[in-house]
Amino acid sequence: QVQLVESGGGLVQAGGSLRLSCSGSGSTFRIHTMGWYRQAPGKERELVATITTGGSTEYADSVKGRFTISRDNAERTVDLQMDSLKPEDTAVYYCHARNILNNNNYWGQGTPVTVSS
Predict the structure, then answer these.
(1) Mean pLDDT of all residues in the chain?
(2) How far apart are CA 44 and CA 54, in angstroms?
(3) Cα–Cα dist 71/49, whole Å
(4) What is the DSSP string of 48-105?
(5) For position 75, what pLDDT does the model report?
(6) What is the C-alpha to C-alpha distance for residues 55 and 112, in angstroms, rounded to an integer?
(7) For the segment 25-46, what is each residue's pLDDT rounded down to a tens digit?
(8) In terms of CB atoms within 10 Å, which of 1, 12, 30, 34 comes out highest?
(9) What are the CA-CA distances from residue 37 to residues 48, 74, 117 (Å)?
């Protein structure tokens, strides 16, 4: 069982930066693929970025070159550095964990990000 708590959301002007952080509980954090998803008003939840247990990363095309995902297994955290933010990045951002052994999925409660133009 993994519990996830996000922090770092807020209001920022276009072109600015925010850093989201997700703190995970449990001793099995390191065997979870971690990811960030987002859901804008009236839209479906979409993948933003993932990072595997080995540190390999993948990004949605819309955020490549602007967002960076990282993890610290010792601290049980996964961060999302968001630079050059655009109004279309406005959404609730959710932390996600998937256990690579049993495929159990876990979600955080979400943190809102608003980018003003």
Answers:
(1) 96
(2) 29
(3) 12
(4) EEEE-TT--EEE-TTTTTTEEEEEETTTTEEEEEE-S--GGG-EEEEEEEEETTT--E
(5) 93
(6) 26
(7) 988 888 999 999 999 999 999 9
(8) 34
(9) 5, 23, 22
